Automatic annotation (TrEMBL):
InterPro entries: ADH-like_N (IPR013154), AOR-like (IPR044626), ER (IPR020843), GroES-like_sf (IPR011032), NAD(P)-bd_dom_sf (IPR036291)
Keyword Coiled coil: no
Top-level lineage group: Eukaryota
CDD domains recorded: MDR_like_2
Statement: the UniProt record of this protein carries the keyword Lyase: no
Keywords annotated in UniProt: Oxidoreductase
Stretches assigned to the Enoyl reductase (ER) domain: 42-336
The protein's name: Enoyl reductase (ER) domain-containing protein
Family statement: Belongs to the zinc-containing alcohol dehydrogenase family. Quinone oxidoreductase subfamily.
Length: 349
């Protein structure tokens, strides 16, 4: 069933999606949406599904009908503890793919109807994080944070990419990684690891890509393009023969993993704080441009979105989806789809 057009959005407050101001329309004309939110920090059970006002875009923002969203560890870390400036209640979620429904007057790159994807949350931005995340039927985002969804990539696949791809790219940039160098990726099977392995091989043309994972995922990580896979349940870092031009640690084990780095070679740790003072922390840059740059590799299928075989959860099963990612064992990404069409029903994306 096709999604209805929810464009008749009247003046709802945006900034504070939870506070309405300057309303010029009658109460009964307010357009509401389904959204997951939490009003207190804690385990996944603090999440509630409720009705919230649909936001309207600021002059520099797009209003998006979300078709799919992906979860990231930061979504549950922020829910468990007050790690970053953000007002409660919070609608979690950074990654999404969807359709532009409306735009602010200063938006120049996108039109209503465009299929776009991106990470809507910038942790490097000044001020507070957005209260309205992607686990809602509608969200708002600055146009420079999103890109046109590549052809041949589904909404679910597109939603799985932004945070992981932006993080993977940033690590190689921070290390000043050069074509033909070798890289040892600690944790090749997770959201970031699966992209780091593929980008190392395809975009950065590494001479040797080795990644670690547990026994059941060795063939999977090889299938992503790793030249060698180390089963960490059987082999310790000290037993790895080669030394590498870069150690790219996605699991926060730099206190141990540095031993596979060549002398003076960079050690990148994407977790905070790194467990080794020698390691450089690398934090993602949120930008639609990074996604746009990778578009050819995504459209020709050389770089693939990786969704965990059990990792597609209906919008109504968001708590189960968090339960799954919080095991720390996801293979690639955990994605939420389909989303509701409107407050009364669901539709396929
Ligand atoms: N700095 C940033 O900007 C940034 C951005 C994104 C994420 N992060 C952080 O980076 C970390 C990874 O994120 P993610 O999205 O990739 O997480 P994820 O998808 O949840 O990672 C799950 C994967 O980690 C692997 N893993 C767990 N322990 C391992 C070990 N000892 N050795 C090798 N692999 C292991 C698991 O494989 P096995 O089952 O085979 O162990 C699983 O496939 C998180 O802490 C996240 O918060 C930082």
């Amino acid at each position: 069933m096709p999604c209805g057009n929810p464009l008749e959005i009247d003046a709802l407050d945006l900034n504070g999606v939870f506070k309405r101001r300057n309303l010029t329309i009658a109460e009964n004309r307010l357009k509401m949406q389904k959204a997951w939110f939490y009003e207190e920090y804690g385990p996944k059970e603090v999440l509630k599904l409720g009705d919230l006002p649909i936001p309207s875009p600021q002059p520099y923002q797009l209003l998006i009908k979300v078709h799919a969203a992906a979860l990231n560890p930061i979504d549950f870390k922020l829910r468990q503890n007050p790690l970053a400036p953000i007002d409660l209640p919070v609608v979690p979620g950074c990654d999404m793919a969807g359709v532009v429904i409306a735009k602010g007057d200063d938006v120049s790159k996108f039109q209503a109807g465009d299929e776009i994807y991106g990470n809507i949350q910038s942790f490097k931005a000044e001020g507070k994080l957005k209260q309205l995340g992607t686990l809602a039927e509608f969200t708002v985002v600055e146009e420079n944070m999103v890109a046109i969804k590549p052809k041949n990539v589904s909404f679910e696949e597109a939603a799985s990419l932004p945070v992981a791809v932006q993080t993977a790219v940033e690590g190689f940039k921070t290390a000043d990684f050069k074509q033909g160098q070798s890289v040892f990726i600690v944790g090749g099977a997770g959201g970031v690891g699966t992209l780091a392995v593929q980008l190392a091989k395809i975009v950065y043309k590494a001479s040797l890509v080795t990644a670690t994972t547990s026994s059941g995922k060795v063939e999977f990580v090889k299938s992503l393009g790793a030249d060698k896979v180390v089963d960490y349940t059987k082999t310790r870092y000290e037993e790895v023969e080669e030394k590498y031009d870069l150690v790219y640690d996605t699991i926060g084990d730099s206190r141990n993993s540095y031993v596979v780095a060549k002398e003076d070679a960079p050690v990148i740790d994407i977790t905070w704080p790194p467990s080794n003072p020698r390691a450089k922390h690398s934090s993602l840059t949120v930008s639609g441009e990074i996604l746009e740059t990778l578009r050819p590799c995504l459209e020709n299928g050389k770089v693939k979105a990786v969704i965990d075989p059990s990792g597609l959860f209906h919008f109504s099963d968001v708590i189960k989806a968090f339960g799954y990612i919080e095991t720390g064992r996801a293979r690639g990404k955990v994605v939420v789809s389909p989303f509701p069409c409107n407050a009364n029903g669901y539709c396929n994306t």
